[in-house]
Amino acid sequence: MTLQYAPSEVRPHFPSPADFPKSPLARALRQPVLLGLFLPVQAGGWTDSTLPRSTDWSFDYNRALVLEAERQGFDLVFALSQWLPKGGYSEVLNGQALDSFMATAALSSVTERIILISTIHVLYGPWHPLHLAKYGATLDHISKGRWGINVVTGHRAVEHEMFGWERIEHDRRYDLAAEFLETVEHLWTETENYSYSGARWQMKDAFVTPKPLYGRPILVNASGSAPGIELAARYSDIMFIASPGGADIASALETLPAHTARVKAAARAQGREIRTLLNPLIISRDTEAEAYAYADAILAQHSQNGPMGRGKFDSDAQAWSQHGKKPDPYAKVGGNVYLIGTPEQIVERLLQLRAAGVDGFQLSFYDFAPDLAYFGERILPLMKAAGLRHDLP
């Protein structure tokens, strides 16, 4: 079986959950924009500040956030996956973290409607496509089609080294991720035993039951590079993107239209549709002055380490390459972009980002529990009035 497709070659079609009108993903895609929550399963959330807050990495805290997001009508939640040495990035971002796969799997039993996305480094450690195909099909049934995978390949050398390897070269990682996804899709769809011998994995007479309810679980990947975009175009339902220009809204609005158009064109060349998902960190209060005072208080107690650990752990990630290259103190509050202002100003920015080709927002906050409650009370109704969200039956 050929896994390396030429750029002009269309990959054979496997069904997506979006192809099934009754699937949870198809339901979510009836919204004008997707709405998600980026869970703080890691210490410090997304911001390296000691300003007091409730944000906590514990399962109970994150379960409460998910239940509140589900109550507000959010479509999905993500959680990151990280493998860091003792001490993590800093005193605040100290490496304490739940495993994304285990945490979101557990959340499937306490939720009813919201989609749960597990971030999984598919190239690390003992993962075999047969393992994930079986585990994923099981979770698909437990969640009734509400589970998916954010496929990541690992950009920090230290993470690969924890598993006893040298970091795999950037583009090669995406070749291997394609091999992994190709094999799990076969395992989810083949009605007979499946054998395969490839560059990284082998299997003989493999078979997976149960089969997923809607073709396969939801597939997501995050990248800003050409190989990452090509992987998304061929396999993913959603691509998690970053602003190519930086975290400030002006740079994001300048650079995102071409970036989102490129992603969608690559998918359409494969005869597929893909949705783009951006991660804004929202700092909002009733007045603009209050919002910026809150942001300034966060920054006043900020350490020197950024949320991605730049300067401490070597990374070859390309999606964040422009972040931090120009003076912008507010970029340290976190997120692919930061949005600071009144509820009305936040909604106006979301409308602008939607016009720039962003199909959904995976939100994060500084103080998650109260800021999520404020979002539901003050911002979400304005999003509905602006046509960004609907109340679905």
From TrEMBL:
<keyword id="KW-0288">FMN</keyword>
<dbReference type="InterPro" id="IPR036661">
    <property type="entry name" value="Luciferase-like_sf"/>
</dbReference>
<dbReference type="InterPro" id="IPR050172">
    <property type="entry name" value="SsuD_RutA_monooxygenase"/>
</dbReference>
<feature type="domain" description="Luciferase-like">
    <location>
        <begin position="36"/>
        <end position="359"/>
    </location>
</feature>
<dbReference type="InterPro" id="IPR011251">
    <property type="entry name" value="Luciferase-like_dom"/>
</dbReference>
<keyword id="KW-0285">Flavoprotein</keyword>
<keyword id="KW-0560">Oxidoreductase</keyword>
<protein>
    <submittedName>
        <fullName>Alkanesulfonate monooxygenase</fullName>
    </submittedName>
</protein>
<keyword id="KW-0503">Monooxygenase</keyword>
<dbReference type="GO" id="GO:0004497">
    <property type="term" value="F:monooxygenase activity"/>
</dbReference>
<dbReference type="Pfam" id="PF00296">
    <property type="entry name" value="Bac_luciferase"/>
</dbReference>
<dbReference type="GO" id="GO:0016705">
    <property type="term" value="F:oxidoreductase activity, acting on paired donors, with incorporation or reduction of molecular oxygen"/>
</dbReference>
